[in-house]
Specification:
A hairpin with a 5-residue loop joins β57 and β58. It contains no helices and 62 strands. The radius of gyration is 33 Å and the shape is globular. It is mainly β.
Length: 749
């Protein structure tokens, strides 16, 4: 999360430089006693020093004389300078970074300093332009950038850029007579070096499958970084389809095995979820999660998925048996739990996954190590805030100040520099720590977000505590008064309150169901997911008040309800579509006109007040009383899905599974609407419309006189099919061996 910290200290910017960071531009030392203001976007072109180019922080200072009413805001941008303005200057061009709107504050005597942290912006090698745009400033108010000079790091010309129209920039000076007034803004940029490769295992002579007909395992590769720093990404070789792949960084624990001293641990340091992909090389990014690794300490990369058993081997991780990796080894355990064991292959006792680890060397001078985002904290808990300090050489810590939501809660003047925050209140909170050295230079940590839950809340407030419901008809309720959101929880709608409750339902059959949400004081949103953790949930269905879907028999579905207003009971109903078409429907294509008696079975448990008959979602007939039957005459050809929607006295609508019927064209006339295009190897792809289960005739000719039928063409699917002509045995020779080839498509009746 990007953080914007406003400080009201005149002409002072707080230091937050990482131990491996570099100040690549700094003009915050010599205040000229004035400011520069413009009614449009304007700013300073900065020539950068040093080599670090991954921007992590922007510090700047400004003056404001306003009457705050909530409308005065500002926006910061960084531009590259690639577009030529004249023979020696390039004007701002591409936006590299744009902030959210930042409230303009009065500050002390009107002076303000702002630090925008937690950035990860790649900068060009030489030059960027920093701009600011003040908005909502009244005619009798003023806001402007403070002017400093000279820069102590980097360089800036004595002029600003100002926007004079869309894409139209012009250089400006604030004084043509007073050359001592330099147009140099009070700005400092802090950057990190780019990530460096740290660990690598490239040998790939085998593979381990995580899923199969009888296999459900998870894997973990132990590794040992050579550098201390922030984990940037992990690359792996795995191809899969279906449920997402979850990649987690774990600590390690002692293993009783005397050969290998550590196994994957239980503490989760970071989590990334990768969507399905057929590309074998995957990149799992961890930079935004602030995972800091220590050189020489062992960690584990865990690979897991919520996919069930598969009929074919899937989720295959590429691994190697030769030239063993010295920093760790590959482990496996059953998905349902158990102990970690050595991953093996035929004639190989030790395996290692193919992987790369990239690290941004160095770490912050002050970092909050406890609590972590995943810690479960309750209202009234005493929360111990622990820090790790790594100040620049020769600078010892004099004190550490602790903040919750930018409010100071305490200080410590001696190691281990921890503090106990008592009586924590429910809600989302941001923790920060400021370390001050003996020279009174201040170093600021990144923000750590924590969630404190109410002491008394619903049993099924959390995903992992979801209540189990079962059956073809489900009715359940629970109070949403103290319900909360969790980290990683999918937000159904920003219009809802976030007082979510969770259930889990196992489908007894593959009959369509309708899930409804009711709340006594207003609307509620419903969401249906598959997955065993919040990070890997895959949405199945959802909607306001209700949704319908066709489940897979035996599969578990996580169901969440979110009311518009917090409080009172949320009511969950799961209703199986018990009204369906029971009359016989021809399994083979029929010719028009065709009269089909259609009857829908009445419900035994629900009071049905309306049944609607549909063909391909077009309403055919509506009946309000049993028996629900009538005769439909089909005169048009095509593939038709026949369904019924049944509404009961409570307003719940269920949708039946479709019944299929194919009506042939009159006299066999059918336009397949074929189209063709050539492929790179000279083959031809023919696309055409089909009727379900109706034979397809594809013919080809090289002279438009003699036609040959393509053997073995599949029957129609009811959708648009594709035929690839790549020569024998489909056709007598490859299309690239002929000067011309013609095709025609029809029904094979």
């Amino acid at each position: 999360m990007i953080r914007v910290v406003l400080t009201f200290l005149a002409i002072q910017v707080i230091t937050s430089v990482l131990s491996a960071s570099e100040i690549i531009y700094d003009n915050t030392s010599s205040f000229l006693g004035t400011y520069a203001t413009e009614r449009t976007e304007y700013g300073d072109q900065l020539d950068l020093a040093g080599t670090a180019r991954v921007l992590t922080e922007i510090d700047f200072s400004y003056y404001a004389h306003i009457v705050p009413d909530g409308t005065q805001v500002m926006k910061v941008r960084l531009y590259s300078n690639e577009m030529t303005y004249d023979f020696f200057r390039n004007q701002p061009s591409m936006i590299l970074y744009e902030s959210d709107f930042i409230p303009i504050q009065l500050g002390q005597n009107g002076y303000n300093s702002v630090a925008i942290t937690n950035l990860q912006v790649e900068l060009p090698r030489n030059t960027v332009t920093f701009t600011i745009e003040f908005q909502g400033i009244k005619s009798n108010e003023v806001a402007g950038l403070l002017l400093y000079s000279p820069p102590t790091v980097g360089f800036s010309f004595n002029e600003f850029w100002a926007r004079r129209g869309i894409g139209d920039w012009a250089p400006i000076r604030f004084s043509l007579t007073d050359l001592s007034l330099k147009a140099n803004a009070a700005v400092r940029l802090i950057a990190l070096p780019g990530p460096v490769p740290d660990q690598q295992q490239t040998n790939s002579d085998t593979a381990i499958s995580m899923r199969g007909p009888l296999t459900r395992i998870r894997l973990a590769q132990v590794f040992t970084p050579e550098n201390s720093g922030r984990l940037d990404r992990v690359s792996l070789r795995m191809a899969w389809t279906g449920a997402p792949l979850r990649v987690r960084i774990l600590d390690t624990s002692t293993n009783p095995d005397p050969i290998t001293s550590v196994i994957p641990g239980t503490n989760i340091l970071g989590t990334t979820v990768l969507a399905q992909s057929s590309n074998s090389v995957q990149q799992a990014s961890f930079y935004d999660q602030g995972v800091y690794l220590t050189a020489g300490q062992k960690y584990a990369i865990e690979y897991s998925t919520d996919e069930l058993f598969t009929t074919n081997s899937n989720y295959t991780l590429t691994a190697g048996t030769n030239q063993p990796y010295q920093g760790g080894k590959l482990w496996f355990r059953q998905e349902t739990g158990g102990t970690w064991q050595n991953a093996t292959a035929p004639n190989a006792a030790n395996l290692n996954a193919v992987f790369d680890i990239w690290i941004v060397p160095g770490g912050p001078p002050v970092r909050i190590t406890r609590p972590e985002k995943t810690d479960k904290l309750l209202e009234g808990d005493a929360v111990t805030i622990q820090t790790a300090l790594d100040l620049p050489a020769g600078k010892g810590a004099a004190k550490v100040t602790f903040f919750v939501d930018d409010q100071q809660i305490g200080q410590q003047t001696s190691a281990p520099f921890s503090f106990v925050w008592t009586n924590a209140q429910p809600g989302l909170h941001h923790l920060r720590a400021f370390a001050e050295d003996s020279l009174r230079e201040v170093y600021r940590s990144d923000s750590t977000a924590i969630l404190v839950k109410p002491a008394v809340r619903p049993t099924n407030d959390d995903f992992e505590s979801r209540l189990r419901v079962q059956g073809t008809y489900v009715h359940a309720s629970a109070s949403s008064a103290a319900a909360t959101l969790e980290f990683f929880e999918p937000r159904l709608s920003t219009n809802m309150s976030g007082a979510t409750l969770w259930w889990v339902w196992t489908a007894p059959s593959s009959t369509p169901v309708t899930v409804t949400a009711q709340h006594s004081t207003g609307d509620a949103e419903v969401g249906v997911y598959i997955g065993e953790s919040l990070e890997t949930l895959v949405r199945v269905a959802g909607g306001l008040r209700s949704c319908s879907f066709t489940p897979i028999a035996g599969r578990k579905y996580a169901i969440v309800l979110d009311p518009r207003t917090r409080g009172s009971d949320l009511v969950l109903d799961i209703v199986t579509a018990d009204v369906s078409i029971i009359s016989a429907v021809p399994s083979q294509p029929v010719s028009p006109p065709f009269d089909l008696p259609i009857q829908a079975k009445d419900s035994l448990l629900r009071d049905i007040v309306k049944v609607q008959f549909y063909a391909n979602k077009t309403l055919l007939k509506e009946l309000s009383s049993a028996p629900f039957r009538y005769t439909q005459t089909f005169t048009d050809f095509g593939n038709f899905d026949l369904t019924v929607a049944a509404t009961d006295a409570q307003g719940v609508i269920t949708f039946s599974a479709p019944r299929h019927i194919t009506i042939l064209p009159a006299a066999g006339q059918f336009d397949a609407n074929p189209s063709a295009h050539s492929l790179q190897d000279g083959a031809f792809a023919i696309e055409y419309e089909t009727l379900e289960n109706v034979p397809v005739l594809i013919e080809y000719s090289d002279d438009f006189k003699i036609w040959h039928a393509v053997p073995g063409v599949d029957h129609g699917s009811g959708k648009r099919n594709t035929f690839i002509d790549d020569g024998p045995p489909k056709t007598d020779k490859h299309p690239k061996q002929t000067n011309h080839r013609f095709y025609r498509v029809g029904l094979g009746l």
